[in-house]
Amino acid sequence: MTVQPVLLEVAERVATVTLNRPEARNALSSEVLRVLPQLMREADGRDDVDVVILTGADPAFCAGLDLKELGSSAGHLRPANADSAEEPRPTARGPFPDMAKPVIGAINGPAITGGFEIALNCDFLVASERARFGDTHTRVGVMPGWGLTVLLQQAIGVRRAKEMSITGNFLDAHDAFSWGLVNHVVAHDDLLPFCRRLAADIIGNDQRGVRQISRTYDSVAGATVAEGWEIERRDSREWQRQGFDPAEVERRRLAIIERGRAQT
Q1: SS3 at position 166
Q2: Does domain 6-203 sit in CATH 3.90.226.10?
Q3: pLDDT at residue 70 in the model
Q4: Could you say which of 88, 115, 184, 256 is the most buried, measured as most Cβ atoms within 10 Å of its Cβ?
């Protein structure tokens, strides 16, 4: 029976995408790089999915490029969204397509180099106590191409990002939390249950609103402060023009009050 290198499971409006080469610490083979964007696109397009969780089969999240395969052929260094006979499109970014639905990175173990970049392309990260993060591009002698130099400094600041990249030193889960790289650190066995509880919180919201505010954050991230204010103003005006149901707003307001009481 052939083992699939990436798995997709859907339950309760959550798609869980799992890198599934545990014997190779989920290293990025050419097959993984082909299948991962396909399954992420499929999850994003499904009507029965509101949130995607991306994780790895223990013991690692992803050890980066498969160096054994790289040693025999550099072909799978080509970005996964590039045609084999062409250069990648100038607008193509990251290891998987732009996602309309939130992607929670459930980092169950080491996330190294290309695997670190995959994690950084998630909307936010939850780390197992076993998680470790490392950018070893300079140790291997390759350059990042999935946004590491953009996304890492957004997460932890340019000075800390440079330290990670030019030393190749590793960051453990608790330091990653203190640096702002991950949102939560949880016990290893609670990682997926915790992420599913966060997903349930997201699913309980207005999904058009979830996707729009996520798009606005992404647009503002690449802008100046002044441009960011204008982007939010533009998106807000467009949202108002689309109209909304006052009765639904009131229903949600009352539900928020009840939820707040339950959380205090």
Answers
A1: helix
A2: yes
A3: 65
A4: 115
Q: How many residues does the chain have?
A: 264
Residue 50 in contact with residue 203, Cβ under 8 Å?
yes
The Cβ of residue 28 has, within 10 Å, a number of other Cβ atoms equal to 29
Range(s) within the chain of domains with CATH label 3.90.226.10: 6-203
How confident is the model over 70-103, as pLDDT tens digits? 665 555 445 444 444 334 444 457 999 999 999 9
112-159 pLDDT, tens digit per residue, is: 999 999 999 999 999 999 999 999 999 989 899 999 999 999 999 999
Q: Give dist(CA 167, CA 124) in Å, integer.
A: 24
Residue of 130, 131, 132, 137 whose CA lies nearest to 168: 137
Backbone phi, psi, residue 47, to 5°? -70, -20
Segment holding 242, helix H or strand E: helix 225-242
Q: Which amino acid is at 163?
A: E
Work out whether strand 184-186 and strand 124-128 pair parallel, antiparallel, or are unpaired: parallel
Residue in 142, 165, 141 with CA at minimum distance from that of residue 153: 165
181 with 120: CB under 8 angstroms? Answer: no
**3-state DSSP assignment of residue 147:** coil
d(CA 123, CA 69): 30
pLDDT of 67 reads: 76
Contacting residues for 59 by C-beta, under 8 A, at least 6 apart: 22, 25, 108, 109, 130
Could you give the CA distance from residue 182 to residue 133 in angstroms, rounded to a whole number? 10
The Cα angle at residue 116 between residues 184 and 105, in degrees rounded to 5: 40
At 21, is the secondary structure helix, strand, or coil?
coil
Query: Among 181, 168, 170, 173, which residue's Cα sits nearest to residue 131?
Result: 173
